[in-house]
Amino acid sequence: MDAIAPATPLLTNDAAVLGLLMLTLGAVFATAHSTRPGWQRFYRVVPSLLLCYFIPSLYATFGVIDGDVSRLYAVASRYLLPATLVLLTLSIDFKAIVRLGPKALAMFFAGTAGIILGGPLAVLIVGSVSPETVGGQGPDAVWRGLATIAGSWIGGGANQAAMKEVFEVSDTVFSSMIAVDILVANVWLAVLLFFAPRAASIDARTGADNRAIDELRDRVTAYRAQHARIPSLTDLMMILAVGFGVMGASHALADPISAWIATNAPQLERLSLTSSFFWLVVFATTGGLALSFTRARALEGAGASTVGSALLYVLIATIGMSMDLRAVVERPGLFAVGAVWMACHAAILLIVGRLVKAPFFFLAVGSQANVGGAASAPIVASAFHPSLAPVGVLLAVLGYAVGTYGAWLAAQLMRAVAPVT
Rounded to the nearest 5°, which phi and psi values hold at 356? Predict the structure, then answer.
């Protein structure tokens, strides 16, 4: 593949590269929502998110663009990512989440615990058979790459990108992790969708009470009808002001704090506390959470999370520019890690669900709110009833909030058990 790409990419102007990436994203979204049967069949097999990563990687592979030459990712990760985190956590309504009931929250956090604990368990199990699969040193250490999967499976793409920067994951390792993330997550999504129509019989066998689902459906429908509105120019400007305003404040705080820790407590580098990017992500996430208790949360009705998602997809496309497609086939052992990891996640969900007698709906949506985020949690929720799709979004937003913290904890556990090869 090295011979495919010329030494100098075809496009070296970042404005031209950005235009190409935006046209690509537009084409993916247009075809993904096309009513033509051919495109619908295609996207039932190939996730649109996968294309947003891999089409830019094809451009890089064939020498159209070069992620090492372009500065777009540096800009996107430092400016768009923090703003994305703010806008995705801004809409959290903790009271509404509590009203979902203890079983819904229990299943969500059981899913989170399954990801946090499943990662190190998968490293231990696979490492006992093939240490080189989960070993490595420096930026190529596999545990660093697995931290990005933890970010994706607890929160979403923004948290995944944050972990890539915090733990300084090499592009080669990250390319493999993207493949593992998307393949394993989509297989698990297919499993949940298969069992969704059979939820009633599953609940009957476990003794789960479905009345909470009906009440939940009615509450969510009423909430969405009350808050949704067509955004005005003022709404959009306020959304951008909040997102990028908190981003700027986070930058202003992160640099001096990380510098102070590096000078006065350098031993904390092992916990990433000397990384300015770590503090940037923490402050952006915390800022969004704090604003969710203010009137700024009303901006969600005008599409704050939609704007955040748009910024996120730009970031995803810039990540794709640096992906090495050869990594997908060069490290097949990593897929075993992902499979064991997801099995641990599923096992914990099943155990907790059986203990609390939670409806299968809460198990499925709680899982996808972690693993799939706002992209697929509504899909699973709507498989039970279309009006329940917002429940998936609500729990997925909670995943964005805890994704950074949970992924960081999972990374430290994987780091502790990973072999050095």
Answer: -95, 0
In the structure, what pLDDT confidence band is assigned to residue 271 with cuts at 50, 70 and 90? low
Distance of alpha carbon 203 from alpha carbon 201, whole angstroms = 5
pTM score, whole prediction: 0.70
**Same domain (yes/no): 309, 248:** yes
* 53 alpha-carbon distance from chain centroid: 13
Interhelix angle 142-154/333-356, rounded to 10 degrees, is: 40
Residue 229 within a domain: no
Give me the number of domains the chain comprises. 2
Which residues constitute the domain of residue 391?
A: 72-221+234-417
For residue 283, being part of any structural domain is answered with yes
CA 289 to chain centre: 17
DSSP letter assigned to residue 70: -
Query: How many CB atoms within 10 Å of residue 330?
Result: 12
Residue 1 has pLDDT above 50, yes or no: no
φ, ψ of residue 266 in degrees (nearest 5): -60, -20
**Contact in structure between 146 and 177 (CB atoms under 8 Å):** yes
147 with 262, same domain?
yes
The predicted-structure confidence for 47-75, as pLDDT tens digits, reads as follows: 787 788 889 988 988 889 988 789 998 89
- In this structure, the answer to whether residues 112 and 47 fall within a common structural domain is no
Q: Do 32 and 173 reside in the same domain of the chain?
A: no
